[in-house]
Amino acid sequence: MVSRTRLAEVFNNPPADLELERLDPKRVPEHIAVIMDGNGRWAEQHGLARALGHREGIKAVRELIQAANDIGVRYLTIFSFSSENWSRPAAEVKTLMRLFAQTLTTELEPLYEKGVRVLTIGDLGPLPKATRRVFADAVAKTRDNTGMSLVIAVNYGGRQEIVEAARRVAADVLAGRLDADSLAALDTSGFAAYLDTAGLPDPELLLRTSGEERVSNFMLYQIAYSEIVVLPVLWPDFDRYQLLRALLEYQGRERRFGGLK
User: Fold this and answer.
1) Which of 101, 224, 236, 258 is the most buried (most CB within 10 A)?
2) Using CA atoms, how far apart are residues 235 and 61, in angstroms rounded to an integer?
3) Catalytic: 202?
4) pTM above 0.90, yes or no
5) Distance (Å, rounded) from C-alpha 126 to C-alpha 154?
6) Of residues 70, 85, 145, 172, which has the active-site annotation?
7) Is 69 labeled as catalytic in the residue annotation?
């Protein structure tokens, strides 16, 4: 558990409307998932090319990772590129793939030194070879780290993940690894073991920027009981105090998981 002293160091100059003393160190989520939305609109608002919005968004990613790690978040999942993003202009997709490779190459050593473990979810097969290699290198280099797990969702879609999990179940049945009795006894926990996120806890908090109130095919199975916090800021304007704002809103809710209290 993070100390109050550490929280005060991380959030050392909060806006007047954010009361840091209300943040309970014991209730910092173990797993936060983030839909980082608004790079393109931010660029348009500033009269810039969309690619520059994506570049500016990298600063916000760095800020999020640093702050989450510093306050004791154990798992941070970021939605970097969806399976639907391939429909964007080819030049924008090419820029994003190049940015992934450049950014992770630059940030890998600092992440490693902080003990961060890098994981990926999604189908990396269609990515350019150089980009796939950078992700693979990051996963391999940080495999034994025991600090925060940074889960990067790339070419990821929640529906596709569930379909692929069902195919894995079917493959186990056909191969005889799962008999009729085991299949009949398969529950939600057992099915989760076939997902990309096998072994990871479900996120307690799903955070989205840009004010859009939708989940965009992200972690559909895992966010069944996540608290959803939508912030009106565009992603490049996100900073640690926006994270604090989301945490205070999260802690102000009563989580009932379908029950009555």
Assistant:
1) 236
2) 9
3) no
4) yes
5) 10
6) 85
7) no
